[in-house]
Each structure stands twice: as structure tokens, then as C-alpha cells.
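Hi R.,

As promised on Friday, here is the backbone we talked about, encoded as C-alpha cells. Could you run it through your design pipeline when you get a chance and send me back a sequence?
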């Protein structure tokens, strides 16, 4: 007979619920810390401290973790990086995960550079949709922000994803004052003309350096007001408490939508449902956490499923109440966004 599980309130002990009652339903799985871009808010040009390839989780190890996590309530699985398409034979992992993901929403976040050659294969293997990171629609500025003259190829990648049926496609745009805040309306135009969901993200301290400048944050409210000078917008009702973006449709019925992820000015930590697995097998309960939890040692050491399950449950119980960016004494993580996983 199955073991009766101890209870946390009205929730079985083997569910992923933290000490604040938040249910964890979103697992972000980083596949690599390497990237072919050098986005200014993510990966400094001088960075060269890469994870040794032998320390990366294997596809079999990732699949085992996901297989154990899904019955605990995971409903969204995101493959991230670094740039996840730098992992060799990625469609093989996608096929493996699609076999254990059940009804989970299964997506990938990418810079889209490799999508022209891989979108169809990923869709065939079982991937359901993609989110593309794109911070400028201007060729020269794109190269400045990413360190790569590749805007045309990224746009081709978006179209390849569309042709492969990997939609609805989301576009994430990090807005930084002094760099690209003048393109907010251009991205709204892009959403309308290409039937995309564009998500504007407030600039966060994620490049592993201590010199993040709050003055460069463009608030979601400011971006919304800028777009409303051009277009009438209607709010889209949130589908869940854990949804990170405040979403808007175009009042004239045009396709596409815009959304605002206001991590800095209007934190949504009280509804956070995310757990992150780094490429080298550490669990992170918050993007801005100063600590991580070594899961790889258990998995690579051949621990039984019950032990891994208990580790997941116990780790989630340690999840922070909030990211603390707006609190006195907040110190940005010394890790880059690429090493943490997006």
C-alpha cells in the first residue's frame, strides 16, 4: 500500500508548496551557461568562467528530475540557458521530456539565432512553443546590446518557429533607460503586425556585477503610458495568481498583445510559482537568491526517487518570501543570469 503522506495544512507533504503557502508549478531547466550572445544585462564581455561540461546535467539526469517533479504539481516546464540551443542534439532531450511531461506546458526560451535550422526538429520532437529574447529592432543597437550583428537571423528564427507551429510565440524585451526605451512603441507595432505577445521586462541586477543602476529602470507604468499614446489598450484578466505579466490587448481588435513584467517597481513575489534548476544541477528558489541546493549529487549518486522527491519538497519549503531588491542592504548575485538560468 502507498505510504500515507504527512499534511501541510490541506496539502500533502509531497506537494511543492512553500512555507508561505505558494504552490510551485513552474520548473525552469537551464541546459547550459554558455551563450553566443553577450547581452549587456546578462553576460559581461569579459566573462569566461564557464561550467565544465562534465558538470552539466546529462539529458538522462534532467529527464529523471522532471519525471519526479511533474507528479508533485509541476505544470510548466521551460528549457533555458545561457542559450539552450547550444546543447548538442537538443531534439533528443525534448523528445525524452515530452514523454514524461504529461499535460505540462512545455516551452523553450531562446535568442532564436539557431531556430531557422532547428525549429521544425524541435516541434517534431514534442516542443510546444518558444519565447524569444529580443531587445532591439534596430540593427546597430541590437549589435551593441548583444555583441552580435544578428538581428535579421533572429527575425528569421521567429518566423521559423511560427512555421513549425511553436506558438503562440512570446517575445521578451528587457528595457534599459539610455539604450532601448525609445523602441517600446516599435515593439507594440511588432506585436500587432506579427501576432506576437511582447513582454516588456524591467531592467534587473542580473549580470553578476555590483554596478546595477536603478536609474536605468524604466517602469512598466511608464512603458504602458508610452504605448497608450499611440494605441488604446484593454487589460487582459490574469489567468492565475502566479502570472508574472500584466497583459493588454489592442482595443481595436488587432492581433497580438503587450505585457509588463514589473519585477522592480511592482514586485509579484507573493504569487511566485517558480523553481529553477541550473545547468550544473543546483536548485534555486529565487532568481535573486544568494544560495542554491545541490540536487546533482543525489541524482548522479543514484539516489532513489523517494529521496529526490523529499529533497525537492524540502528545498521548496526554504523559498524566500520575496527577492529583496527594494530592501536596504540588497546585494546583487555574483552569478550571471546565464549561469543561474533564465
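Update: got your reply. Pasting your designed sequence below so it's all in one thread:
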Amino acid at each position: 500500500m502507498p505510504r500515507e503522506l504527512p499534511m501541510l495544512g490541506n496539502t500533502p507533504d509531497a506537494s511543492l508548496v512553500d512555507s508561505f503557502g505558494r504552490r510551485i508549478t513552474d520548473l525552469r531547466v537551464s541546459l547550459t551557461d554558455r551563450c553566443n550572445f553577450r547581452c549587456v544585462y546578462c553576460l559581461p564581455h569579459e566573462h569566461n568562467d564557464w561550467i565544465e561540461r562534465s558538470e552539466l546535467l546529462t539529458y538522462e539526469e534532467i529527464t529523471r528530475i522532471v519525471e519526479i517533479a511533474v507528479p508533485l504539481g509541476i505544470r510548466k516546464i521551460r528549457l533555458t540557458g545561457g542559450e539552450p540551443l547550444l546543447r548538442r542534439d537538443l531534439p533528443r532531450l525534448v523528445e525524452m521530456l515530452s514523454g514524461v511531461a504529461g499535460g505540462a506546458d512545455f516551452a523553450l526560451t531562446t535568442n532564436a539565432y539557431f531556430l531557422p535550422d532547428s525549429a521544425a526538429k524541435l516541434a517534431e520532437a514534442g516542443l510546444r512553443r518558444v519565447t524569444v529574447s529580443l531587445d532591439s529592432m534596430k540593427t546597430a543597437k541590437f549589435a551593441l546590446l548583444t555583441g552580435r550583428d544578428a538581428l535579421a537571423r533572429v527575425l528569421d528564427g521567429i518566423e521559423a518557429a511560427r512555421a513549425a507551429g511553436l506558438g503562440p510565440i512570446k517575445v521578451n524585451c528587457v528595457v534599459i533607460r539610455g539604450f532601448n526605451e525609445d523602441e517600446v512603441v516599435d515593439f507594440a507595432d511588432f506585436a500587432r503586425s506579427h501576432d506576437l505577445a511582447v513582454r516588456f521586462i524591467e531592467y534587473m541586477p542580473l549580470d553578476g556585477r555590483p554596478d546595477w543602476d536603478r536609474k536605468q529602470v524604466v517602469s512598466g507604468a511608464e512603458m504602458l503610458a508610452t504605448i497608450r499614446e499611440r494605441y488604446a489598450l484593454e487589460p487582459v484578466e490574469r489567468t492565475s495568481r502566479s502570472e508574472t505579466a500584466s497583459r493588454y490587448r489592442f482595443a481595436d481588435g488587432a492581433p497580438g498583445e503587450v505585457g509588463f513584467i514589473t519585477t522592480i517597481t511592482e514586485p509579484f513575489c507573493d504569487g511566485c510559482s517558480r523553481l529553477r534548476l541550473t545547468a550544473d544541477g543546483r536548485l534555486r528558489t529565487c532568481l535573486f537568491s544568494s544560495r542554491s541546493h545541490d540536487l546533482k549529487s543525489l541524482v548522479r549518486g543514484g539516489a532513489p526517487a523517494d529521496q529526490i522527491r523529499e529533497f525537492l519538497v524540502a528545498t521548496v519549503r526554504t523559498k524566500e518570501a520575496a527577492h529583496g531588491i527594494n530592501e536596504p542592504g540588497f546585494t546583487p548575485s555574483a552569478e550571471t543570469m546565464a549561469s543561474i538560468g533564465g
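One thing I noticed while checking it: The longest helix spans residues 151-163.

Thanks again,
M.
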